[in-house]
Design a protein that fits this description.
- This protein is α/β, with parallel strands linked by helices.
- The chain has a single domain, classed as STAS domain (Transcription Regulator spoIIAA), CATH 3.30.750.24.
- Helix content is 38%, strand content 31%.
- It contains 4 helices and 6 strands, in the order βββαβααβαβ.
- The chain has a 6-stranded mixed beta sheet with strand order 1-2-3-4-5-6, covered by helices on one side.
- The radius of gyration is 14 Å and the shape is globular.
């Protein structure tokens, strides 16, 4: 399976999903004009990955800002990945937060609570 690499733009995050290492990152700003079009390709890739996942998968979110439309799709990514745990695999969500960004910290806490799954909060 080939990695998923999407270069970031002013409106869309950089996406680097490496199936060999099980390390997935979403970095930058997410305010795409068409969130469905942008995120559907990521969800489709995850569906393929889940057919033969690594023993250990980590998903790191290092977002500066995301809009309401992106919120749904970010959560969809998390929900899509969660069955790894019930299949005996390791899953870690890393939520990066700038030292003084209370809004982003609260967003991560909200995702963790809705997902009912613990996040690692990493300050940078």
């Amino acid at each position: 399976m080939a990695p998923l690499i999407i270069n970031g733009t002013e409106d869309t995050p950089e996406v680097v999903f490496d199936p060999e290492t099980g390390k997935f990152t979403i970095t930058g700003t997410s305010i795409p004009e068409n969130a469905r079009k942008f995120y559907d390709q990521i969800i489709a890739w995850i569906d393929d990955y889940l057919k033969s996942p690594n023993e250990d998968t980590s998903v790191s979110f290092k977002l500066k800002y995301f809009n309401t439309a992106s919120t749904k799709y970010l959560f969809d990514i998390m929900v899509e990945m969660k069955p790894l745990v019930s299949n005996g695999k390791s899953l870690v969500f890393n939520w990066y937060v700038q030292e003084d960004d209370d809004d982003m910290f609260e967003a991560g806490q909200g995702f963790s609570k809705m997902l009912r799954y613990p996040f690692n909060f990493v300050k940078y």
